Amino acid sequence: MADVLALADALGLAQFNLAGHDWGALVSWNLAESHPERLKRLAILNVPHPRVMNKFLKENHQQRLKSWYAFFFQLPVLPEIVLGAANWDLLARSMRKSFSETELNCYRAAWSQPGAMTAMLNWYRGLFQRPPELISRKKIQVPTLMIWGKLDPHLMWQMAPDSIGRCENGRLVYLEDATHWVHQDQPDQVNRLLSDHFAVAG
């Protein structure tokens, strides 16, 4: 959150629109709770509100199974070895439905940089070791658009309605044929939804 706010300050933006996916969405949810005065409008792609995620992890066996990798990533060293095996085959296979082989090769090159995979996994490790404080039970006041690809293999779509229900002014759009990588699967539709959302004044 501090990084996002520092970028906005460097650009002279007292207020700004914010869109986030995956870890960026988790940062965005927390920023909307802790600094709503800085945001004009918020867009979230395929990540539930943190309180909803916590609830589902505690109470829903199916979501715990879908989140198995987050628990595996808590181990030292072993996840880096397993993920790096056979030229990152496990990671590449998990993304093949949404990305071309050319794009995956770009990812492989990035994952292969010294320390890159550990830095990525440390997001998961940090979340478990020092979970962020859930600041408030009040509804998020920033106008919020949530876009959710219903074929997400990692996160249950049933978390989306509870998440948008935590927003005072929220709208939920399902994309039936999109995965977790909703912006990659249906870029034109996602970009149109984002553009329309952020174009609204106020």
Model description:
By secondary structure, this protein is an alpha/beta fold. The protein is 53% helix and 12% strand. It contains eleven helices and four strands. The protein has a four-stranded parallel β-sheet, with helices on both faces. Helix 6 packs antiparallel against helix 7 (101-111). It is globular and about 50 Å long. The two termini are 23 Å apart. The model has no long low-confidence stretch (mean pLDDT 95).
Could you write a compact summary of the structure shown?
With 202 residues, the protein is α/β, with parallel strands linked by helices. The chain is built from 11 helices and 4 strands, in the order αβαβααααααβαβαα.
List the helices and strands and how they pair.
Layout: H1 2-10, E1 16-21, H2 23-34, E2 39-45, H3 50-59, H4 61-66, H5 68-72, H6 78-95, H7 101-111, H8 116-129, E3 144-149, H9 159-164, E4 170-175, H10 182-185, H11 187-199
Parallel strand pairs: 1-2, 2-3, 3-4
Helix pairs in contact: 6-7
List keywords for this structure.
202 residues; alpha/beta; Rossmann fold; four-stranded parallel β-sheet; 11 helices; 53% helix
| Uncertain residue segments | none
CATH architecture of the largest domain: 3-Layer(aba) Sandwich
Mean pLDDT over all positions:
95
Number of helices: 11
Question: Could you give the order of strands across the largest sheet?
Answer: 1-2-3-4
**Helix and strand succession?**
HEHEHHHHHHEHEHH
- How many separate structural domains? 2
Secondary structure tally: strands: 4
By CATH reckoning, the class of the largest domain would read Alpha Beta
Tell me roughly what share of residues is in helical segments: 40-55%
CA radius of gyration is 17 Å
What's the shape?
Answer: globular
Distance between the termini: 23 Å
CATH superfamily annotation of the largest domain: Alpha/Beta hydrolase fold, catalytic domain
Largest sheet composition: 4 strands, parallel
Strand content: 5-15%
**Could you name the CATH topology of the largest domain?**
Rossmann fold
